[in-house]
Amino acid sequence: MTLSRSRMTKVSTDQRERLAMSVERLDQSSDKIRERDLGQTFDSNITLPHYEKSPKKGQAVLFVGDLSYADNHPNHDNNRWDSWGRFSERSTAYQPWIWTTGNHELDFAPEIVKLLAPSMEKINRLSHSHIGTVLLTELQAAQNYSAYGKYTPQYSWLEEEFPKVNRTETPWLIVLNHSPWYNSYDYHYMKGETMRVMYEPWFVKNIVDVVFSGHVHAYERSERISNIAYTVVNGICSPVKDQSAPVYITIGDGGNIEGLTTKMTEPQPKFWHPVNDSPSSDS
Predict the structure, then answer these.
(1) Catalytic residue at 188?
(2) What does the alpha-carbon distance between residue 106 and residue 172 come to, in Å, rounded to a whole number?
(3) Hey, which of 16-30, 86-100, 182-196, 221-235 has the most confident mean pLDDT?
(4) Residue 39's pLDDT band (boundaries 50, 70, 90)?
(5) How many Å apart are CA 263 and CA 216, to the nearest integer?
(6) Which of 123, 164, 196, 261 has its CA 20 to 30 A from that of 7?
């Protein structure tokens, strides 16, 4: 059946408890199905082989943008794309990689003719993918880098596709988006705010379960919250817990050339990120 408004506004306690347990298991198994901001460094060469050798690896890799970092080199050095392709081939040859664009793929320079994904469209790719009981929606706008407002292709596509989700066939609804909407680090702080304001009501209405993001080179996981009321002047925010809202997971620490993000905002908004990997965290 198609997900109706009544279904979307009523979330059973049992369902949310099951989803919470599943997210907790996903959080504890970092080598399952997600990758991020990988690049090609010594650290990258630890991250990907660790996943490849894991007996618990999942059915697919979800990659939330910033792949080869070739744009850090003159003219988007094609050799960097070739070496990254060889580096990732040990996994991509045997598993589907479902990816969204990051700011390092902003202009789709050489990758538009090289990277293949479940969607065969190479430009303006708007798609969703199925992995078992999971429906994945890949958002392609990298926040302030490209258009995502009303009447843009991405906005219109999502407006049309969300109501079609069949939560009986795919009870999990996961969104891949490069820049996080919620971020307690100084790095890229509030960079996704305008997109959050525009899209978050849809996510709550349609009971999106998890949003995976990268961009910030760190890890943290939110509680189920919505409609954060930011005070831009002083950075203070107060969360609203919402069981219809998604869990937001930032996973931008795959090993890229730019290094880890460690400095957090003060005071740290611990009420919405129960887990992070900052050196200052006691998690």
Answers:
(1) yes
(2) 29
(3) 86-100
(4) low
(5) 11
(6) 196
Is residue 95 within 8 A of residue 61, CB to CB? The reply is: yes
Domain that holds residue 32: 5-276
Round to whole Å and give the CA distance between 55 and 62. 17
Q: What SS3 class is residue 137?
A: strand
**Domain assignment present for 145:** yes
pLDDT for residue 76 is more than 50? yes
In a domain, 198, yes or no: yes
Residue 89 within any structural domain of the chain: yes
Overall domain count for the chain: 1
| Buried/exposed 160-188: b ≥16 CB within 10 Å, e otherwise | eebeebebeebbbbbbbbbbbbbbbbebb
- Cα angle 117, 120, 125 (rounded to 5 degrees) comes to 85
pTM: 0.71
Does residue 283 form part of some domain? Answer: no
Confirm if 67 and 99 have CB atoms less than 8 A apart: yes
> Which CATH number fits the domain that encloses residue 25?
3.60.21.10
- Beta strand segments in the chain, E: 34-35, 61-63, 97-99, 127-131, 134-138, 172-176, 210-213, 219-221, 225-230, 237-241, 247-251, 275-276
In the set 188, 215, 217, 273, the catalytic residue is 188
Query: How far from chain centre, in Å, is Cα 249?
Result: 7
Q: And the tokens for 20?
A: 């919470």
